[in-house]
């Protein structure tokens, strides 16, 4: 049983992103199972809502009205929506710094989000969290926080809890490619794998951690190799293809609910805005600019819309209505949130401990 | 027929607390390193795994951060996990989950969630283990809003404050010190207490000097007070018990009475618990009432040594406290240069 | 022809320090997140990578613990690395390497090695970032023997103490605060200083009150002192600069003179730097000399909020310090219940 | 490029320990290249020295003379000795809690170690470290510490330093299977891989972390899969076979010195004593007791000796002399150390900072 890496070099290819990483590929219409039409239609609507909310927030950031740091998810709407389609009551979902999409995909209220980014008492975190700390227990969102990797072990614990509950529920952990560089990620994968915890790990690989491309941070661009190492069943899919995301999620979730332990999804995607804030080009060099133009042709929304139209499930008018409706919802929610109150002064100290006030200074 | 009282040691009392919790509260489980070992955490958890099953008494990989985070996750889902770190030093790998996550989730999400996780870490020093196996660092955690910090100094407290910690809706750091495992006492029946109502306790009264300490230092203070009493010096002894949030009422009251304070702590000095005791008192007591400047007894400003002669001089002792107390009581004549 | 003085901002002064070090000391390199980004660490390291090469200005994966440990390893091999954490909060993942490793290797190995690592972390609070992006925690690190802790409050100090930190043979935590980046001053020529000789500095003198603070709080103290002076109250202002090991000589001397102390700190209260200031002074000053009980101004006991109205009330301000100082100076009549 | 773990299931076998994990295997004589005879003879001598030192320490622990926690390496002598054979001046080696063997294999003085475990000023760490904190800069041992995983990133930093020095030197990181569960391990592997740092990672997989078997802590028993994930070239060998360890090390070190970046070795072995202290059976259950008996037949020392005898390189007399000499050296060193002084009282404060005294209390 002496062995070495020379013996395994062949299948290292399975861990390359191949043309999934090629901005010029994947522009043709999606492969759609007509049985999935209904779900895809509502997914399309949800993605449009996310896009419109994000654009609104981006505008408000650029105008200086929203001041908390916002990490926009424009261009990456499909993973959240695709996975949310298989989240049921009793499941617990966790996100990170770029989680507006996760919140909305699970059914979160645009008003709650727009109030939160304004720091209003009516926000989903009662104005105590801002963009980076969202929660929505009724819809299964158990928390998103901006310490990279921090919610991954927390999600594993939620999985352990689900297993103890014994209802077939699962935990879902959304994170980025950057998070796979945190030790917490690996400790979590090993723990979930060893304990067979019902956890769906979803890595949205958008190639970037802030300004740095994955090729400058890791020796290979697909992160599924970590799942393989931790013996967590994995699948990789085009993260801009809602149908593909749904298929991969469905298989993974079925295995998880059947008690097979955790599963890992790598969804390859791309963000259109800068790491933080509203601008497109805040971060980096020319290469990214070229890529971005090509990735825009891989827009998860328009590609799905075109495919559904080709399919006969959608017509132009309807699509237009989706956009108009989203705009109306968002503008109304924004207006309402703008008039809401800030948290009362006592909120600072009354929310620290259960049942008691913390000390002033 | 007279019954001889049954006494229980500090370690066994902790085990009683675990047993009570696991028996009476289905939401409680415990997770950490060494829980399936006969010796890892002393006698404080012996055979809990066979008694309650390895699904509720979970031994883990060597992954402090991951396991602490997992406990927090379960806590957010209605469980009351106790995560075990056999040494404070190992727990430092999990600081993010304790300090930046658990302590903040409630406030950060507008009070909509609670994280009833108890982190139990053991102070396990001495025995020539050296710098990386001897830290206590209660001062660090007592610095963090949102995290309750509990350090029992008696077997009864070891049991009852463990139970109160786990039943608290807030994250709690519970620190026990292996040097206390030798203490024995007769335990009263278990009573579930509200941790928010627990705080420092006056365990001895006197007019001459206030001794304040927590955990093993509280024990040293009690011993020192007994010795000082034999010398005609009577002390108030305050066992802090709950370090954060700190209720300083009792120590302030005592300082006003005695005019003299000696704060003893088994942690380092700078920005330490002893500094907090002195600052809390100094802020609140009219200086004219003080009969002497307050003083601290802490570790010296050095990592723990291994070599036994150095180790002996490193940790505060009853002798040393007595000596410093005597100097303090004679200190009205002390000259400040 | 009269020359207009050239002033340099705090962030640019830090960059000057880096430039000086990288230019004059081949053993210096820097590693951390954001070093190849135009904006990640403000203007404090702009274009260093193109100037000195990406072998000496290393941007990294999101691996705080690993990268800090790597810097320590290089330090043990004769280099003088500066590891960058763009926020204190992220650095907490690396506490083991800073506190249990770097701070202890020298003593633990009998003084045979030195670990000249500088950990530079940035306090980057406000802006509605909230609880996990706003911690400063200098009190934690000032608690650790073996770790020097430096917090400059002026552009000159920002540059020169960075250089002194990197040239020190001991591990140093260097904390700069983005709120100071707006300060500008004319910089004197660079002089390499011995960090072991640096300590608190009296930046203003007065008879009525001692104000003590570090970093941004020292700046607030200076501003408050100017305002108080306009009200006829003259303050000693002490900028702590080096928090650990702390030389309390100056603050003790000042307290003896003024009899009144207000310790200001941008960290939490319990077991914090302000507690240390008060404890150090209270231990050393005959209480009969004090004209009032010393007081602290710190953060409230809560995680940082996001919402702007709450954020405004969260951080100490010049106004608040002035108000507390006025109360303190009038405090001879204050009644202690 | 949609892919999933189903595609890679075949080569998961490469990551099984197979009969290397079988206590009953590998009892036959070693395969020895006669060219390696000389090195193996001196390796044998070194392993005997380690064994004798460890037995002495074990005795002194059992008598209560040595009080600091000692993690004995008896049964695991080959990895340290095999790897040390390829360490040259300029390389930097790091160990962990079970590092007496690493220290001695690199040429460390038995007296220095025996004085250190007694807390004497003449110890290798001047009496400030005890068994768990050893250092020997002249021989390339840059430090061993008992925080599991802690020296792995430190070794990567030493590798980065070696790369900057440009002399073809490397760093060596010794750690156990338990350490691969620490996030620090994964962060370090990724960093070394990305930066192509000259680091030899050596995992002594002895199946146990304290009382817990690897099967209770990880989903698979061979840890090479982590190296594969981090794209670090790896090899696995019988860690009780000095010849095999040497071969694997040689290949790895050549690649490292050639500038190819880090390499990873998994050396499969077994400890004979309890996790800590002198006893054999302090930890665990029956299974381990049975295994231990079988593993003793895989004794790295006697198996090598038998093989070298068969080879004609060694005769009975010489072997006996090796043992006697080791005993003499160790007894003399022990006696000397016993009479040495403890560190002076001022050592506590004078060694904290460079050039200055720390404050008393
Ligand atoms: C522990 C920690 N380190 C660093 C950061 C700074 N940071 C915030 S987001 C981010 C990028 C993370 O990249 P990725 O996980 O891929 O998510 P993405 O932004 O691409 O959605 C970084 C480095 C942080 N918030 N927390
Ligand atoms: C961070 C940390 N966690 C836990 C421990 C307790 N501990 C000491 S040694 C050890 C076992 C490590 O196992 P392994 O790495 O396989 O080394 P081995 O003992 O088998 O040589 C553990 C868990 C520690 N010292 N440090
Ligand atoms: Mg990313
Ligand atoms: Mg092992």
Give unreliable regions of chain A as ranges.
Answer: none
Instruction: Please state how the strands of the largest beta sheet of chain B are arranged side by side.
Output: 3-2-4-5-7-6-12
Biggest β-sheet strands, sense, barrel of chain B: 7 strands, mixed
Q: At CATH's second level, what is the architecture of the largest domain in chain B?
A: 3-Layer(aba) Sandwich
Query: Any idea what the radius of gyration of chain B is?
Result: 20 Å
The rough form of chain A would be described as globular
CATH domain class name of chain A: Alpha Beta
- Give the largest interface pair and sizes: B-C, 62 and 62 residues
Count the E strands of chain B: 14
Structure class of chain A: alpha/beta
Structural class of chain B: alpha/beta
By CATH, the superfamily of chain A comes out as Thiamin diphosphate (ThDP)-binding fold, Pyr/PP domains
- CA radius of gyration of chain A is 20 Å
Architecture overview:
The complex is a heterotetramer, with two copies of chain A (361 residues) and two copies of chain B (337 residues). Chain A is α/β, with parallel strands linked by helices and 361 residues long. In chain A, 41% of the residues lie in helices and 11% in strands. Chain A has one domain: 3-Layer(aba) Sandwich (Rossmann fold). Chain A is built from twelve helices and nine strands. In chain A, the strands form two sheets. Chain A has a six-stranded parallel beta sheet, sandwiched between helices. In chain A, strands 6-7 form a two-stranded antiparallel ribbon. Chain A is globular and about 65 Å long. The model of chain A has no long low-confidence stretch (mean pLDDT 94). Chain B contains twelve helices and 14 strands. The termini of chain B are far apart. Chain B is globular, with a radius of gyration of 20 Å. Chain B folds into two domains: 8-197, 3-Layer(aba) Sandwich (Rossmann fold), CATH 3.40.50.970; 201-330, 3-Layer(aba) Sandwich (Rossmann fold), CATH 3.40.50.920. Chains in contact: A-B, A-C, A-D, B-C, B-D, C-D. At the B-C interface, helix 5 and helix 10 of B face helix 5 and helix 10 of C. Strand 1 (3-4) of chain A pairs antiparallel with strand 8 of chain D, so a sheet runs across the interface. The structure holds thiamine diphosphate (2 copies) and magnesium ion (2 copies). The site of one magnesium ion has 6 residues of chain A, from strand 6. One thiamine diphosphate sits between chains A (71, 97-98, 146-148, 175-179, 206, 208-210, 275) and C (33, 62, 64, 90, 93).
